[in-house]
Here is the input.
Amino acid sequence: MPRPQRGGFVVRGEDKVVAEVIVDIAHSEVDKIFDYLCAEDTVAGMRVAVPFGRSAATGFVMRVKEKSEYPAEKLKRIYRNEEVALTKESLLLAEKLAARYRCPMALVLRLFLPAEMRTGKVTESYRTFARLAGGYTPSARAKQQNALAEFLRDNGEADAAFLRERFGGALDALVKKGLAVLERRRVLRNPYGEVEGEKTEHCLTEAQRGAVKKIEEESRTVTLLHGVTGSGKTEIYLTLIAKQLEAGKTALFLVPEISLTPLMLSRLRARFGRKVAILHSGLSAGERFDEWCRLREGDARIAVGARSAVFAPVENVGIIVVDEEHDGSYASENSPRYHAADIAILRAKYNGCKVVLGSATPSVETYRRAETGEFALVTLPNRINARPLPEVTVVDMRREVRRGNASPFSALLREKLGKCLAEGNQAILFLNRRGFSQTVTCRDCGYVAKCEHCDVSLTYHSDENCLKCHYCGTKYRMLPACPECGGVHLLYAGTGTQRVVKELSALFPAARVLRMDVDTTSGKEGHYKILKRFADREADILVGTQMVAKGHDFPGVTLVGILDADMSLHFPDYRSGERTFQLVTQVAGRSGRAEEKGEVVLQTRDPENFVLRFACNYDYEGFYRHEIGMRAATCFPPFARVVRVMVTADTEREALDALKEAYEAAEAVYKAHEEDFLFFNKMHAPVKRIQNKYRYQILMRLTDGEPLKEIYAAVAAIKYKNALVWVEENPSNLN
Ligand code: ADP
Ligand code: ZN
Here is the structure.
């Protein structure tokens, strides 16, 4: 297939047949099929431009047919974009999703294309190359030219800009004499080009070989690969993928956030070279476009990326891997609110291939599906080479405070940090809060600094000396005094990453500390740069938010400190226990991955908490038993569905009006199926306002999935004035 291009819409041949077109306007009123005349060789999936109303629009051909119900003279003609076509599978999948989530088809189709292709903003990238034309003989007077000619003779050709930088005017002098030629060519951008693959292909262990065999021979589509951190899951994925490639197939490899896993990337590059294409939002528009094209054309056969990569345009899929399947980032927070694993399963059924869901801490819902036999289960209980899991010591922070220690570090953590540094090892300190302090409060009147646009308190950031809203990003100048009472005694309560870094430098002045959180990782390869510096031992301590918990493999790390394990524990959310267990296990798993034994210090004010107890012992089974028992007793997922209808609007009035309409629509469903509802009510959302939008919700718990379809339909059928209304199922964020 030729390379897709932007623009370039043409009319072709005689328009004898009829195309059913979805116009790329995401509005419920145009969410239907429009018929257009087109040439006979038009195929489903083609991108087209069509006259629409008084203007033009782009769209996709969904089907081609002989005849329309409309008279031919009433039909308009389409303009085709010759090259771009969505796959047949994409169209089928899109139709399924649009029906399932009651979402305009145009919006669903956008998932299948790089955004830049739709908006036409992407540009192909060109570079100029130079090579020798022949006939060059060294001259004693032109030393630079000799050097350049020699360089070109050795290297064949090279980038002209680079040559000008290195050899000055010599290049243009040679070109002028006709001894070198320049050529401008299109180049494909190569994201993470500097991520070099290290050849680390291992001979699989007995356990790994067994897992591969079991997954391949399994008759069920989905296998849950439950392996402790460092048990060699990645090597299993790579082997499964390699075998499918050999069989002429393609692969999808989903990871939570690829920018956080440069090591994974280098392992893929090492093994598969340019057959790997990376799809994720951190790439530049041009890079993403090029990678998408390489997949669509079959140049690349492994699509690696976060959630949206599940829509990669590969055909003939042989395997789909979802690594860290428990990760919250697999659930989309925009319409359509799909979960990547659900899409993976749909694609696997279409392609007749397997899905592997991998995790050290599977989500309770997934594990349940394995337990009931819907999914196959493969367990790896041990680390590679029987390396021990790091020992976890729990410190009761209430006791520390009683002893007069108000710092973020317990005496034990301080001692262990000192020892770790003295031995030349590295440490990771985890804290789920960025900034310096959580709140700024007036000692005299109790005033709390809050965002003007959101119903949340502001966080003090010491490096910029400002207050930031972590919901909308607005920055405020630091308050010299309380705006309410004029008092000058402002308290900074709670600890954030910046404060930890500051206190570390006071405790260990010689230690080199890196901070990794949203504030330090902006920019295209922001995460990668910090992780690389830490991996290259340019720092001794890495302080960070949950980003540091992801699957990193730093051999130098022998100590992990979890500064406040309680922070995620007391979220008003049925998943808070599960999430804390996952977080603690994952962070702890960063310690002691190489020869040196690792350890973990876990600080909490609730040392008897069952979640933490199980996490300390790496007892997933125990945790699961306890948790699933609770979920069954209280009727929460997977024994029921939490469904939320969200309503947001610019004013309280508009929000309440829309809420009333949505509530009446949903209530009709509730009344008709009362026996399937465990709970049904409307209320303020926990955060009442975000980015100036007032927020309300209708919360329900359903034992049966049937009424859910009716809820979707009832809520979608209403035209809300000046408000947004949508449905969420088992939302991962209940703000
Ligand atoms: P997981 O994905 O389960 O956390 P990894 O696949 O990252 O585990 O493996 C953990 C470590 O063990 C890595 O450093 C990896 O290079 C190494 N490893 C994996 N498989 C083998 C093997 N068969 N032999 C030796 N080392 C291995
Ligand atoms: Zn805000």
